[in-house]
Amino acid sequence: MKINKMRVFEEAKSAKRNYNFILFSILAYALATIAGLLGEIPGLFFINVLPEHIRTVVFSMWMGFGLMIVFTIIHVKFIEKRSIKGLGFYKEKMFGQYIKGALTGMGFMAIVVILGILTGAYTITLNTLTTNGLLSIFLMLCGFVVQGAAEEVLVRGWMLPLLSNRYNVACGLILSSVFFVAFHATNPGITLLPVVNILVCGVFLGLYYIKEQNLWGVFGFHSFWNWSQGNLFGIRVSGNDFPGESIFDTVSNDGMDLISGGVFGSEGGLLTTLVLLAGSFYYLYYLKKHHEF
Description:
The structure is a single chain. By secondary structure, this protein is mainly alpha-helical. It is built from ten helices and two strands; from the N terminus they run ααααβααααβαα. The protein has one domain (3-290). The protein starts with 6 loop residues before the first helix and ends with a helix.
């Protein structure tokens, strides 16, 4: 089968709107920004009432990123006038795909950390946690479940198929990944290597989405990659120091920032580059073996 005949590309062809990359990026960024503001603003009234991790989960992750999903679905349903199933919301094997993606995301991050320990880039210690600490870890997981899903709906489910149909699959994959980089451009501590890694991550997730032909796997990977990075291993997530406790405390050793990622977190280091490139080449090999490009 030709790769552009796969179902997520075929169903996207019924869209009544298909913008060029520049207009698409402006629309997507505006949609995400408005959703984020609508979620964040109510949280300002609870600064002195709720702990930071609860405010982050409720107002930023659930409300802000949740509205991003809602706004994207509304646009697809009423502006593009097509089924939201075409984004990748197919029911078959949804739970299995999600669990597989979650385990893969956690596994990839664990490989990065283990390689960091073996190369001397990381020092890791086990934290002593209270009941409240464990609760904060669980709540952050609930937040990352929505946050990771929202970015995947926007970039992989919505942008990737439409850009692929307007140009070609390779261009759709690269351009949606470029937007993914731009979406993180204002993150704290971002430099050239984090930009490269976010681009590679976008390509990896795009290939994963194309291979599975649904969103469930990339939902699980993205959410649990972020959560395991921040609240399992205690590493900054894309430069952000998220609240809540962590099971481990992983410290970047002096002089090893290029490998470990330094202040940006593991997504700013060469170990993440290596792991995500390996995953990308695997999915590219699989797709080229089973489909005609």
